[in-house]
Design brief:
The complex is a heterodimer of chains A (295) and B (512). Chain A is mostly helical and 295 residues long. Chain A is built from twelve helices and no strands. Chain A starts with a helix and ends in a 7-residue tail after the last helix. By secondary structure, chain B is of the alpha+beta class. Chain B has two domains: 288 residues, D-Maltodextrin-Binding Protein, domain 2, CATH 3.40.190; 209 residues, Dipeptide-binding Protein, domain 3, CATH 3.10.105.10. In chain B, strands 8-9-10-1-11-16-12-15-13-14 form a ten-stranded mixed β-sheet, with helices on both faces. In chain B, strand 4 and strand 5 form a beta hairpin. In chain B, helix 9 packs antiparallel against helix 11 and helix 14 runs antiparallel to helix 15. The chains are: A mainly alpha (295), B alpha+beta (512). Chain B: One of its GO terms (biological process) is peptide transport. Chain B: One of its GO terms (molecular function) is peptide transmembrane transporter activity. Chain B: It is found in: Periplasm.
């Protein structure tokens, strides 16, 4: 502060204390950091659940049926005497695993197809776009319901089915970004210098496309977590007794009036997690959005 | 303390008087008004050949439109309705049904023995539907002798036959012959009966409405102007609707809602403990369940008192056979396996192979929580259980009917004669033997119970049946069939909920 005291420009700077749009965009702020801390806590707990001094999430205790939260069971126990804190933490594993891996699969395939379509155009684009339109024509949730009902739910199956269903949207975002960057001078220059298609795509376009794709993936992650919750609620995700947030909510719904903590705790955890991911994604999108920049 | 005893005793006495069944002090019926009843499932339709089965909602709706040949009063005595007499020939092979003279369908057409005979012949036609073979038993044909007399001819004596005419049953919903022949696919949704009410509106996925039948033979028993059955699948929503007065009858509440309603002076609980039970069916034709030791171990591993508390909120009675203490077919001490995890472990050790099983349930908390409880108990004795959730309806029922299952949560419904409960499901040669049990002792008991006309012989046969079931364990018994409805105090004259049905044919309401 004292350094500014003799600074003749300081007064002017103070008068202009309101940050410029550029400064606002560059600053992440608490609307990024607060959700980021929440996500970090959830991820840390989920990944280290086995190491934590938690009771087994599937062990029933008939002496502690439907106990409200207390010192022994911080989140209470469910109708079978299982510790809800433990089930919530282990349940986060499923939500996060499916929520991260399914979009990762969709991102990988979708980005590959989208970049190919946006870069090569012509027949390649027509074929890929038609295939993606065909995938999008299927009502996604019905496909998932049908597959899980017939084959039986498992984490790999959910990842594959949900991942495939996200491919078209990733492909479209990747294609749109590729179309923009493919017209830039640095790409035209690389091609004029004789760079191969592979080199242009991997070294010139991919680094520019990947950032908006990753940010878009955050929004997809939150959607997939909700979809997994819906499937669990319908009994079409992992079979009992393994907890997921969705099946914990489903098991608690009949006791909503008398034991509201049983469904509300996993519902609140899901809500906070999805909200946090959305806030992080939105903040990063605003920060990297070239349309609003001064460039 | 002493001075308080009097008021306390008085208060308790007053409360008990207040809780008395209102039969003795039932006020004079009032005419007019509407009853709205909310149910879990939708009405399926009114033509047996189209619906092929009937849930309770369908049966309750059909009871309004078609009524019955006879009903039963609270003592179980037969009360004439559309029929006036049902008599058997000495050899038990011919039964003669006399219809009430002058009956009319709701469209004004005469209701005659020819309509009844035509309907039964339609049901019995094997080219149309084999589903009813077990339900129609040894019935061969129905013949109209004159306008008010129908003769039923049986292939062999069948003790349970007369009880067909005592229960609301979709198989005996008679419509005008001309209507049955000409309505085509509409028949299922355009019922014409001779019961006290007629269907006037059917909003799919919402409600079905009934109004007075102007041609009913007994207008004195028609009290309500209108009856609405509303489809409201969520029990919490049904309870809220009842408490806010949107509906008058909450059908099939959860145990905890029954407990809450019992403590609420603004609500009445209607309850009936019938025969039958909630069960877990075991497919005895597939390993490891083809070994009786595994089936017995499953039963010994379960602490059913915990299940009563967790799965049924402490409301109800544990079943040891299909016929509880209040049934005339009750058999004490059948030897149902008690909770004994050590014995379960010993049986599994004798069996000698690892036991991994699949339990089929519907993805509702009402089934999934008890299923997880079973899973936990069985895990403690070394049985690994996978819970398979299948949505209710045909996708749940068909695998069981096909025998493509291991364990499945099920229900054996309340019926007036044990034959309906045991013959189809447990007789080795029955097409509906869903547990695939083949046991000569069971077969002998079932055959005796079906063919004998001597009540004592039949009672002994069903006692033998229950004891053999407890040994062979083709099913795990859960709770005795216990049916509930919660009503507003303005609703009166609901008879015993036999078969879990709320029969509104003669119900009435106080004005709002």
């Amino acid at each position: 502060m004292s350094a500014f005291a003799d600074d003749p420009g300081h007064e002017t700077a103070s008068a202009m204390a309101a940050p410029s749009p550029m400064q606002v965009r560059d600053r992440l702020g608490f609307r990024f950091w607060l959700p980021a801390v929440w996500i970090a806590i959830v991820v840390a707990l989920a990944t280290t659940a086995n190491l934590l001094p938690l009771p087994s999430p599937i062990e029933t205790d008939f002496a502690a049926l439907s106990n409200w939260p207390d010192r022994t069971h911080w989140f209470g126990t469910d109708q079978l005497g299982r510790d809800i804190l433990s089930r919530a933490i282990f349940g986060a594993r499923i939500s996060l695993t499916v929520g991260l891996l399914a979009p990762a699969l969709g991102l990988g395939i979708g980005m590959l197809l989208g970049m190919a379509a946006g870069y090569f155009r012509g027949r390649v684009e027509a074929v890929i776009a038609a295939a993606m339109d065909a995938v999008m024509a299927f009502p996604g949730i019905l496909v998932v319901l049908a597959v899980t009902a017939y084959v039986g739910a498992s984490v790999p199956l959910l990842v594959i089915v949900l991942g495939v269903l996200t491919v078209p949207t990733f492909m479209r975002v990747a294609r749109a970004n590729t179309l923009v960057f493919a017209q830039h001078d640095f790409v035209l220059a690389a091609r004029a210098m004789g760079a191969t298609h592979w080199r242009v795509l991997s070294l010139e376009i991919l680094p520019n496309v990947v950032i908006p794709m990753l940010i878009y993936a955050l929004l997809v992650i939150s959607r997939i977590i909700v979809v997994e919750g819906v499937l669990s609620f319908l009994g079409l995700s992992l079979p009992a007794p393994w907890p997921t947030w969705g099946n914990m909510i489903a098991d608690g719904q009949v006791d909503l009036a008398t034991l509201p903590y049983i469904p509300f705790i996993p519902a609140a955890l899901m809500f906070l997690t999805v909200l946090s991911i959305n806030l992080i994604g939105e903040r990063l999108r605003a920060r990297t959005d070239l349309r609003g920049s001064a460039l | 303390m002493k001075s308080l005893a009097g008021p306390i005793i008085g208060a308790i006495a007053f409360a008990l008087i207040g809780l008395q069944p209102c039969g003795a002090a039932e006020p004079e019926p009032k005419d007019g008004g509407t009853i709205v009843m909310a149910t879990t499932a939708q009405v399926q339709g009114f033509d047996a050949l189209t619906t092929r089965s009937a849930n309770r909602e369908t049966t309750m709706a059909g009871g309004l439109v078609f009524s019955n040949f006879f009903t039963r009063n609270d003592k179980g005595d037969r009360v004439p309705d559309l029929g006036t007499a049902l008599d058997s020939s000495p050899d038990g092979l011919t039964w003669t049904l006399k219809l009430r003279p002058g009956l009319k369908f709701s469209n004004g057409a005469p209701y005659t023995a020819h309509d009844v005979a035509n309907h039964f012949q339609r049901i019995l036609n094997p080219s149309r539907n084999q589903m009813f073979a077990a339900a129609t038993g040894s019935l061969k044909e129905a013949v109209a002798i004159d306008d008010t007399t129908v003769e039923f001819r049986l292939a062999y004596p069948w003790a349970a036959f007369p009880s067909i005419f005592l229960i609301d049953n979709f198989l005996i919903w008679v419509m005008p012959t001309e209507h049955e022949k000409t309505a085509g696919p509409d028949l299922n949704r355009r019922p014409i009966g001779a019961g006290p009410y007629m269907m006037t509106e059917w909003k799919q996925d919402d409600s079905i409405t009934f109004e007075k039948n102007p041609n009913y033979w007994n207008p004195k028993a028609q009290h309500l102007d209108k009856i609405v059955i509303r489809f409201l699948p969520d029990p919490t929503a049904r309870f809220t609707a009842l408490k806010t007065g949107d509906i008058d009858i909450f059908y099939e509440p959860l145990g905890k809602q029954v407990v809450a309603a019992r403590g609420d002076k603004g609500l009445k609980v209607v309850e009936y403990v019938g025969t039958g039970a909630s069960t877990v069916n075991i497919n005895t034709s597939v390993p490891p369940f083809d070994d009786v030791r595994v089936r017995q171990a499953l039963a010994h591993a379960l602490d059913r008192n915990i299940e009563l508390k967790v799965g049924f909120d402490g409301v109800g009675t544990l079943a040891t056979s299909f016929w509880g203490a209040n049934s005339e077919w009750h058999c004490p001490d059948v030897g149902y396996p008690e909770y004994n995890p050590e014995k379960a472990k010993a049986l599994l050790q004798e069996y000698g192979k690892p036991v991994k099983i699949v339990l089929q349930v519907q993805p509702t908390a009402i089934m999934s929580i008890p299923a997880q409880l079973y899973q936990s108990f069985w895990q403690k004795v070394g049985i690994e259980t996978e819970i398979r959730s299948i949505q209710g309806g045909p996708s749940y029922i068909n695998p069981v009917l096909r025998g493509d299952y291991q364990l499945a949560m099920w229900e054996v419904a309340d019926v007036p004669d044990p034959d309906f409960q045991v013959y189809q499901a447990f007789f080795s040669k029955s097409g509906g033997n869903i547990t695939r049990i083949k046991d000569p002792v069971l077969d002998q008991a079932i055959e005796t119970g079906r063919r004998s006309l001597d009540v004592d012989v039949r009672k002994k046969a069903y006692c033998d049946f229950s004891k053999e079931m407890a040994l062979q364990m083709p099913i795990l018994l859960r709770m005795q069939s216990n049916y509930f409805a919660i009503t507003l105090p303005r609703v009166h004259n609901i008879p015993l909920m036999r078969r879990g049905l709320v029969r509104l044919n003669e119900a009435w309401v106080d004005p709002r």
